[in-house]
Amino acid sequence: MALFFSIIFFGYVLASSNYVIFFYNQNKQFRTVARSILLATGVLHLVYLISRYIMAGHTPLTSNHEAVSFFALAMTWGYLSFRWRYQVKNFGTFVSPLISLLMLVALLSSNQINELPPALQSNWLPVHASIALIANSFLALAFCGGIMYLLQEKEIKKKRFGMFYSRLPSLEALDSLNHHCLAIGFPLMTLGIITGSVWAKQAWGSYWQWDPKETWSLITWFIYAALLHQRLTVGWRGKRAAIMAIIGFSAALFTLWGVSYFLGGIHSYVG
Amino acid sequence: MLADTIVALGVNHKTAPVAIREKLAFSGDCKIPLQKLEKIPGCEEFCFLSTCNRVEVFFVAKQREESIKNVLDFLFTKSGLTSKESKEYSYIHQGTEAITHLFRVASSLDSMIVGEPQILGQLKDAYRDAAEFKSTGVIINRLMNKAFSVAKRIRSETNIGSSAVSISFAAVQLAKKIFGNLNGKRVMLVGAGEMAELAAEHLVTQGISRVVVANRTIERAMKLARRFKGTAVALDELVPQLEHVDIMISSTGSPDMILSRGQVKPIMRKRRNSPLFLIDIAVPRDLDPKLNGLDNVYLYDIDDLTHVVEINKAERDKEAMVAERIVKEETLKFQQWLENMEISPTIVAIRKKAEEVREKELAKTLSSLNGLSTKDKKSIEMLATSLVNKLLHNPIVFLKAECAPEDKEQKLDLTRKLFGLDSGQSAEDRMSSE
Lengths: 271, 434
What we know:
By secondary structure, chain A is mainly α. Chain A contains nine helices and no strands. Chain A folds into two domains: 1-115; 123-271, no CATH class.
């Protein structure tokens, strides 16, 4: 299993390096290679998830390794689904390294299959955890779009055209990418919080307990809610939307990891 | 000297601000200024050019001082400026300088954006109007045609034209990087200028759906708006109009900024922050540089755009230097032609040409005839000489005859053409006979 996972990790690294090389020299062959590798790795990763499900006998979303691995998988397929829907020039160059980074975290975490603690023995586990992680993956895509927006906007504003001006898509395209990602990510995130709350009522007897993870997911939710609200009412867009997407994603990551490591709480088994 | 009779007199963007240029106001029928110039005594040939950046008269006059004063009066009659002020705002080039000046204007070396292509067309139109009005003669005709060919030569031998085109191309590229697709976007042209129109044209071909033209004079705005099938607005409406446009190209001749950061900030809220691309190609600048600090506002002035196209200044200066050298060269050639446009050099040239023909033909004939005695040879030589002399007698008498000064050039021009004395001319003759 560990070897299988290493191969998948290696696949992602190979795909990202091809994307980065393509970004640098704009030789389309590298992009073609990168795309094929990413797609193949995505499929292998899916196989890994299923085989782990069979081996564990429960949804493999209970350890940091499993959660982050699923996160990376969701991001891969989220990205691939975007590619199928509409194209954002050189998006892959920014997305694939982040996927590889997540995979690295997963690789370094213990991949031991845990016994399912009683609190997690529920049908809500696959629903809540997968929704929350898929939401995270779209927020991560918005984060990549935000970084790209800031790089592009910086060159256009400063009038110093370097590497990014010609390679990155238009500001408009990046801004609408941000919007699309949030339009999918935010409802999923909301759903994740609601399902979690319902599950909490069943498992712990109360919908909301202000445990650190809950608090931080609410903070994250408010950041994105504020961004979407402002976008729809006064037309917040562009740079501000990009910065908010980056801040929001940082909060989401903190909710995922930081809370477990620094703050503890009853949610900390996923850590 | 004939060269000294040529004068170029006028105002341009370098010598007079737009407020002054506009006061000269020569819009509408091009015949009116020509009719007025016709009444000026001593103005033998003339051509009148009026564009957004310049108003000038090219003319030929024997009594220069007198004519210059009268032409100046004609130019500034509506402006209400004193003659001292009008002299300050205008330039007067005479003789060789005037020739060089015209060549530089035609080849866009004197334009606000060096190398912009429209001035040549405008000059051609001005010349056509003057020619139709029959106010041009041998000298202006030759001078103008030479100017057009100099411009053509400079365009083909240097890269001078590429920077203006690539600047407007860069503007389009930038617009695409900001807006993605330009379909359905709106552009506003503020002020008029060759460069602004060029950029607008490029944008329209890229799918811009609506053009709004704002100008100090609504007439000019309407004229330009018609060209782009757009709408015209007054300059006071500039700020409210900003709510509806995506790209603004500003090129007014205003000495002050016409748009400040404070004016645009509230507009951005009304626009719901949709991006605004401001292109300032005016010198001095129209738009507050601080505007670039506003979110979703992208301001580029002409220097920025030049920087974008990475045509470094040294490169451009080099091209301009080559162009200036061509101008100098052509000016010398033209001067040469003018100098020949006198009686005695023409007679000398005719004699020389005839002598050359005589010698060449004699040599050919004598070498093919065998067994001729020295006496026979001499007779043939004499025959040739007297033929040449007899044939040249009347044309030379005709040239030497007294005539009115304005007829003299025509007479010379005709004679030189008949005998094919000017290298350019004879080359053309050879071409057409082939």
